[in-house]
Amino acid sequence: MSTPPLGTTPTSALSTGGTPDGPAERLEGVALNEKWLVLERLVRDPGDTGQSRSSCYGAVSVDGGRSAFVKAFDFRLDDRSGDTDRLERNVREFNHERKILEYCNELSRVTRIYDSGVVVIDGEAVHFIVCEFAPRSFRRLQPPGDEAVQAHERLYALRKIASALIQLHSAGVAHQDVKPSNAVCFDDQVIKITDLGSSSCLHLPSPPHDEDPVVGQPNYAPYELLYPNSGTSTWQRRRFGCDAFLLGNLIFTSFVGASMSILVLHALDEKLRPDECTCTYDEVLPDLVTAHFAIVPEFLRATVPAVVVDDLVRLVLALTHPDPSKRGLSPDGRHLDLHRCVGTLETLAFRAKMDHGRKAKLDRSAA
User: Fold this and answer.
1) Which residues make Cβ contacts (< 8 Å) with residue 169, sequence separation at least 6?
2) Number of neighbours of residue 298 by Cβ within 10 angstroms
3) H or E segment at 279?
4) Which of 121, 132, 293, 313 has its CB 3.0 to 4.6 Å from that of 112, i.e. a possible disulfide?
5) Pick from 168, 77, 72: which is nearest to 116 by CA?
6) In terms of Cα–Cα distance, which of 48, 40, 91 is closest to 70?
7) DSSP designation for 110
8) What are the backbone dihedrals phi and psi of residue 236, each rounded to the nearest 5 degrees, phi first?
9) For the segment 268-304, what is each residue's pLDDT rounded down to a tens digit?
10) Nearest alpha-carbon partner for 296 in 270, 321, 277, 268
């Protein structure tokens, strides 16, 4: 089977999210908790497949001192339909996201929560979270596959995202939805991880989505979570192993312009793909390993500078090994060492920057 062409995005059309004409879409001009004045509604990044039941806004503190980001949730359809189970789950998910943001509020590489609550709009309740505002996402700063973005710039940014994951993991939090739109960039070049709605935490009660096979966006997810009977064992192996895979997929997607998961799964026989497969993950694994170790180097070698491509290929292959028990950077595969990943990305970024400067100097000399 043919693979999707380079540059295809694994997502649907641009969306502002939320329910059309719902109360969450009518927050402009509202003062939340008498502290935050809601400004214009924000359009989601192209390719962002985040929470469809939320709407996003810019805001400022009432005293004008701080900019903020507002995420508003509309649960009215669940309430009116009488689907009490779904309503309860959505409210629990909202409370989980609020609590985990509060839990992570001292982490310097995770967007901070400022406030939260419920506001009544035209007789309807709207739950909201007020967070730190960043002017652009990583997707907008460095569009995946855009050749105008230099390799060293990508590698330095990816290093910052890996560092943010280390902070989360040190606090016992697995993000589980790392993708280009879930890292945000500030004017001072700081990059932070955002959107903890799909996360899980060792130190907080389990959210409803812990029961789901795939928590984040399926088009970026680790292969094993897409199949039944994958045999993922410990919490750390499943949750942190998921983040390691997502980081490797982010590195791949950043350079190639398409999700590694989509390209590899399209290379399998149709009967072995998640939607068609009736066998166990262990039975699919040999074919998946073959496809993975063929396609990842092929696409990276076509898009990454030669001076860093060999080491980057090794890094991505280690982070995204189809066998969860072998995923990670230690030779024995027993632990996930993202600190080594950060060091590798730093080294490769420096090497790519030196190579770029050398080539630019040669071009000027030739001119």
Assistant:
1) 240, 243, 338
2) 14
3) none
4) 132
5) 72
6) 40
7) B
8) -60, -45
9) 999 999 988 888 888 999 999 999 999 999 999 999 9
10) 321
352: three-class secondary structure by DSSP: helix
Element at 36 (helix H, strand E)? strand 36-41
Contact 208, 281 (CB under 8 A): no
Question: Which residues, 6+ apart, have CB-to-CB distance to 83 below 8 Å?
Answer: none
pTM of the model: 0.88
φ and ψ of 120, to 5 deg:
-100, 120
The label of the residue with tokens 């505002």 reads: 133
Tokens of 77: 């359809």
Distance CA 247, CA 166 (A): 11
Backbone angles phi, psi at 141, to 5 degrees: -65, -45
Question: In 3-state terms, what secondary structure has residue 164?
Answer: helix
**Encoding tokens for residue 97?**
């996201």
Return the structure tokens found at 45. 């990044």
As a whole number of angstroms, the distance between CA 173 and CA 215 comes to 14
How far apart are alpha carbons 53 and 318 in whole angstroms?
Answer: 35
Task: Provide, rounded to the nearest whole percent, the portion of the chain with pLDDT above 70.
Answer: 86
List the structure tokens of 244.
Answer: 């390691």
Longest Cα separation, the chain: 73
Per the CB < 8 A criterion, the answer to whether 329 and 318 are in contact is: yes
